[in-house]
Amino acid sequence: MNEKILIVEDDFDIQSILKNYLEDAGYQLVFAADGVEGIARFNEKISLVILDIMLPKIDGFGVCEVIRSKSDVPIIMLTALADEKNQLKGYAGKIDDYIPKPFSAKILLCKMEAILRRRRASDEGEQLIYKNLKMDLTGHHVFCDGTEVVLTQKEFELLKIMLENKGKVFTRQMLLDRIWGIDAYVEERIVDSHLKNLRKKLSGSYIKTIRGVGYRIDEEK
Amino acid sequence: MNEKILIVEDDFDIQSILKNYLEDAGYQLVFAADGVEGIARFNEKISLVILDIMLPKIDGFGVCEVIRSKSDVPIIMLTALADEKNQLKGYAGKIDDYIPKPFSAKILLCKMEAILRRRRASDEGEQLIYKNLKMDLTGHHVFCDGTEVVLTQKEFELLKIMLENKGKVFTRQMLLDRIWGIDAYVEERIVDSHLKNLRKKLSGSYIKTIRGVGYRIDEEK
DNA sequence: TGAATTTTTCAATATTTCTTCATTTTCCTT
DNA sequence: AAGGAAAATGAAGAAATATTGAAAAATTCA
After folding, report:
1. A107 and A132: one domain?
2. Taking 90 as the threshold, does the pLDDT of residue A146 lie above it?
3. What average pLDDT is seen over chain A?
4. Cβ atoms within 10 Å, residue A126
5. Domain boundary at A57, A89, A119, which?
6. CA distance A15 to A90
7. What pLDDT band is residue A49 in, cutting at 50, 70 and 90?
8. Is the pTM of this model over 0.70?
9. Quick one: B130 and B118 in the same domain?
10. Does the pLDDT at position A70 exceed 90?
11. Taking CB atoms and an 8 Å cutoff, what residues of chain A touch B91?
């Protein structure tokens, strides 16, 4: 999705460290070397601002104030002034975090991601996709060519285990152990029975029979 | 408003510092002195968790993992282990911030407020709308086709959690953990009971039963 | 205390799971 | 290639289990 980060910082070394590290992490960077430029470069497309305190022309607190007056974008302050008074002043300006120099780029990235994670809307649940089949594990849905197929619990678990281990053959006993539990006392044929129903519902030859051994879902070639 | 903060910390001195400072700031505190207690004390009503790393029984990372598995509540880690490795480990567990000891209570409070401010801002509107259903979270009202439906506390929470996570299946145990708390000793059937009443009041098939698994509110297509 | 809510309990109902068995397919032996 | 044995499939009915609805008991709150 490529989020834009505005970095307001006059120290060239730090600019280049951030450039290397954050661009590798997949962010798009916008640099500004002083407070005026920082305010000028800020716009709605910016997802997060990294702001130094000691800056030419307008200091970080000033930039923060201006940006805050028109946007609720996350702001991280980055500075050599590690004393408490400055930190408190930053938080009063409604920044999101304060990182004293020297800092670890890794930690900065983590903090950024912690903040951005909160912002991101779509939290897709866990999914298993195989050919034209889609299993939504959190929602307990199964779709075949986009239309939902309603499975019973046993059918769902059978499909899930086999899809999670594509290419692996499961003997009936293995499936029994994993789904019914190791101490369950049921006929081994129960597996066949559910598999038959599953196959009928899925209407497609996903599950192969390995005669004399068990069942398998082939790996996608 | 009076937000609840869960503090998982075994050091009595720190407990008492936080007690003084945060209670004065208007927060309601819940203390836990070890990991197990921390997990037990956590529930939906908690707005933020302050978590020590070195804890008896289960360490902070473990507690974080358990809480994260069922909730997106903000978590701040608080610890004597200031090294980078531990910090990174914390962020990998999706915490929101990491504060090394010794820490300034003022700074902690600022960080808490920065995080909670975000949370409140994103809950802005405080409304959940789904089809012809409208939940007003601040006012605790629910409207179905414009006419108000009066829900009890438990009914309200059930609907809220499920609407906040449309498309996700909740097992009864998950709902129990989130609404009643992990250590509540009640029959699992209580969930069915409230759900039945909720369904009757809402007069519309919003909540689906996933037999053998739990309940789900489908995503709007 | 009284009303509302929450929790427990239980019977009725619905659905799934399991067993059984006849049928079909596959594989092996001759 | 034919026959027979083993394995897999399909289908139907029985058993087991989960869910619902309702109502009684317990608890909470005003």
Report:
1. no
2. no
3. 85
4. 9
5. A119
6. 21
7. very high
8. no
9. no
10. no
11. 107, 110-111, 113-114
Per residue in B166-202, pLDDT (tens digit) is: 889 999 988 988 888 766 788 889 999 999 999 998 8
Judge if the beta carbon of B213 is closer than 7 A to nucleic acid strand C: no
- Per-residue pLDDT tens for A152-188? 999 999 999 999 998 899 999 999 988 988 777 888 8
Domain match, A49 and A101 both? yes
Total number of domains in chain A: 2
pLDDT at residue A140, rounded to an integer = 92
CA of B44: how far to CAs of A49, A169, B7, B179, in Å? Answer: 32, 43, 15, 6
| Phi-psi sector, A38: left (phi>0), alpha (psi -120 to 50), beta | alpha
- CATH assignment at residue B212: 1.10.10.10
Q: So what's the pLDDT on residue A121?
A: 45
Domain that holds residue A203: 127-217
- Residue of chain B nearest A152, judged by CA positions: B211
| CB half-sphere exposure, A98, CA atoms < 13 A | 27
In terms of domains, do A108 and A135 share one? no
**Of chain A residues 134-163, which have a beta carbon within 7 Å of strand D?**
none
- Yes or no: say if B158 and B152 are a contact pair by the CB < 8 Å rule: no
How much is the pLDDT for A120? Answer: 63
**Is the same domain home to A108 and A175?**
no
A83 and A138, same domain (yes or no): no
The residue behind tokens 């030859």 is A205
Kindly compute the dihedral angle of the four CA atoms of residues B68, A49, B112, A94, in this order, to the nearest 10 degrees.
-150
Whether residue A140 and residue B113 make contact (CB cut-off 8 A), yes or no, is: no
Instruction: Single out the residue in B75, B95, B122 at which a domain terminates.
Output: B122
- Are B94 and B32 found together in one domain? yes
**Cα distances (angstroms) measured from residue B9 to each of A11, B48, B93:** 40, 14, 18
Give the residues of chain B that fall short of pLDDT 50.
Answer: 1
Q: Are residues A196 and A157 in the same domain?
A: yes
The per-residue pLDDT for A122 is 44
- Closest partner CB to B106 (pick from A84, A94, A107): A84
pLDDT at B124: 57
What CATH number does the domain containing B117 carry?
3.40.50.2300
Q: Which of A97, A104, A138 sits opposite B97 (nearest CB)?
A: A97
The runs of H, that is alpha helices, within B123-188 are 153-164, 172-175
- Cross-chain Cβ contact B95/A114 below 8 Å: yes
Instruction: Give the CA distances from residue B41 to residues A120, A129, B149, B186, in Å, rounded to whole numbers and listed in that order.
Output: 28, 38, 31, 16
